[in-house]
Amino acid sequence: MNDFVRVAETKDIQLSKMQTVEVNGEKVCLANVEGKYYAIGNVCTHLGGPLAEGKLEGYEVQCPWHGSRFDVRNGKQTRPPAVRPEPTYEVKVEDNSILIKKSKN
User: Fold this and answer.
1) Handedness of CA 68, 74, 75, 77 (dihedral sign)
2) Gyration radius from the chain CA atoms
3) Where are the beta strands (DSSP E) in the chain?
């Protein structure tokens, strides 16, 4: 249990929405897709745009700065200009708490 840190409550992130949370001093983009939560790095691998401020369409988050897209399920870059994937984090829900594993995958 101590590998996970509580970052939000389920009521904090509505369906098809994202929020920036912090895990071990790193900014993480937490997304709710069809009631399941996913966490990837929040800093775009292209030029550092804040992903949680972008658009979430299905399983893809679009960076608000230059339009790079990433799959929230695995962090893979799906549209340039970014060419590197985002780190992913394991997420679990206990009662109404959203917990994220402290280490990246």
Assistant:
1) negative
2) 13
3) 4-9, 18-23, 26-33, 36-41, 55-57, 60-62, 69-71, 77-79, 88-89, 91-94, 97-101
Please tell me the distance from the alpha carbon of residue 25 to that of residue 28, in angstroms, as a whole number. 9
pTM of the model: 0.95
Rounded to whole angstroms, the maximal C-alpha distance in the chain is 39
Query: Pick the residue with more confidence: 62 or 104?
Result: 62
CA distance 6 to 98: 6
**Residues 91 and 32: beta-carbon distance below 8 Å:** no
Report strand pairing: 97-101 vs 91-94: antiparallel
Of 84, 67, 26, 65, the residue nearest 7 (C-alpha): 26
